[in-house]
Task: inverse folding
């Protein structure tokens, strides 16, 4: 049986895989597990801008209130805003309704505990057992005055999050010309205002969500238009967010991409110079480019890699006392400030590094040289992924490619935790060669999986 929770909550096509019935059950089970010691728990809820958000919110709220919980609604809010405000408002849990970088037909529900941390597998398993009927709800459903209530707090939530973001820097951004790509998502509601209040000259694009245009040829997964805009406008930096604004991809004034690996390299070096890099260590994932390993070694900075998913990065950071980590995709965790990847916070810290160092983004990013990398998605239904990866032809080709790139690159194959795809990543000395090898392996996986 396929696990309900992926690497970032429960996700699927809204009203098909992620139904209102499932959202209701998640509300019930989440309230029961995350607030088991509280008689009338308060659970914070935010969402991104996609059209299915309010529908799923209504079902989720019904589940929470049926358990006697209070649902505090913040409306459109970045995922990291919920992580922070769960702590700020001293709530018992937080929930975000979002499918992050996915297209608009998808949606998702991800949960935070009272400390603003994404849930470990053990807690997710307890919630899933209740939803599947393998465990009973631990309390009797309340009636009368004990039924839960809804609290709407949209305006205050946005203002409190903006004030938090501003408090994370001690410098102003006067004179910096910034172009934003808000992906028609949750960043639209807070990021332009926060940067303007810090003095930046902001030009915002893709900041007019209509419920259907989130991530549509824009945002961190499609920064081409932002690259053009930065070059055309002569801006100092471009900043692209995803739908729920927990990741950031930057563009320098030459229109060149600065991805999550380079952003982490910039921060690691900057914090080390200020004696603020805890344990002199950067925590990344196995997807990070080998160029990051090389750069950190040259800078005398230790590097640790976890499996893919910013929650696994966070778990390692919490267990080992680290304060900087993240993913190539643009999730960056500043544990001294927030408990999850935060695109707006990352943007502010990136501008702060530019101001404090008196260097441009391209100068800062030159600390790392990216090795050629190819990433191809094999589209395989979730229920067929294990079969495809275990097929003899796939195993044989994998073994051949591992031998081919040993000592000069690497091969990584992994199922996505958020989409019905298997990702094939190859790093090596020749871009054309690795592109071809990755494409052929992904095509083979699709073919033997019955696609």
Result:
């Amino acid at each position: 049986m396929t696990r309900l929770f992926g690497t970032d909550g429960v996700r699927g096509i809204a009203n098909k895989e992620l139904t209102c019935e499932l959202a209701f059950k998640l509300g019930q089970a989440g309230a029961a597990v995350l607030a088991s010691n509280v008689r009338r728990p308060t659970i914070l809820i935010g969402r991104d801008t996609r059209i299915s958000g309010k529908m799923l919110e209504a079902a989720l709220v019904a589940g929470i209130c049926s358990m006697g919980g209070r649902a505090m609604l913040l409306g459109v809010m970045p995922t990291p805003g919920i992580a922070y405000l769960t702590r700020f408002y001293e709530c018992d849990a937080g929930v975000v309704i979002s499918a992050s970088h996915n297209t608009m037909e998808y949606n998702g529900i991800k949960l935070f505990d009272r400390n603003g941390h994404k849930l470990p597998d053990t807690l997710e398993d307890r919630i899933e057992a209740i939803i599947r009927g393998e465990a009973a709800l631990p309390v009797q459903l309340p009636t009368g005055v004990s039924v839960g209530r809804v609290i709407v707090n949209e305006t205050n939530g946005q203002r409190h999050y903006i004030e938090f973001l501003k408090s994370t820097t001690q410098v102003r951004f006067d004179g910096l010309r910034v172009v934003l790509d808000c992906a028609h998502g949750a960043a639209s509601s807070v990021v332009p205002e926060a940067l303007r209040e810090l003095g930046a000259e902001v030009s915002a694009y893709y900041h007019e969500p209509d419920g259907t245009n989130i991530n549509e040829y824009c945002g961190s997964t499609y920064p081409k238009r932002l690259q053009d805009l930065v070059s055309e406008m002569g801006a100092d930096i471009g900043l692209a967010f995803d739908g729920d604004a927990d990741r950031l991809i930057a563009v320098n004034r030459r229109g060149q991409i600065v991805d999550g690996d380079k952003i982490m390299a910039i921060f690691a070096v900057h914090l080390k110079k200020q004696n603020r890099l805890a344990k002199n260590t950067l925590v990344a994932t196995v997807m990070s480019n080998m160029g990051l390993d090389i750069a950190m070694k040259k800078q005398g900075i230790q590097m640790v890699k976890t499996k893919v998913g910013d929650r696994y990065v966070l778990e390692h950071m919490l267990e080992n006392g680290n304060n900087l980590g993240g993913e190539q995709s643009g999730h960056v965790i500043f544990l001294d400030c927030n408990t999850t990847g935060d695109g707006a916070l990352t943007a502010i810290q990136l501008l702060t590094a530019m101001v404090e160092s008196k260097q441009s983004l391209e100068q800062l990013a030159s600390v790392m040289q990216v090795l050629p990398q190819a990433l191809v998605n094999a589209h395989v239904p979730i229920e067929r992924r294990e079969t495809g990866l275990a097929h003899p032809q796939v195993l044989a080709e994998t073994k051949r490619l591992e031998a081919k790139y040993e000592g000069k690159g690497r091969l990584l194959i992994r199922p996505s935790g958020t989409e019905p795809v298997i990702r094939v990543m190859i790093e090596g000395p020749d871009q054309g060669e690795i592109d071809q090898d990755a494409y052929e392996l992904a095509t083979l996986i699709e073919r033997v999986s019955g696609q």
Q: What stands out?
A: The chain has a mean pLDDT of 94. The first strand starts at residue 10 and ends at 13.
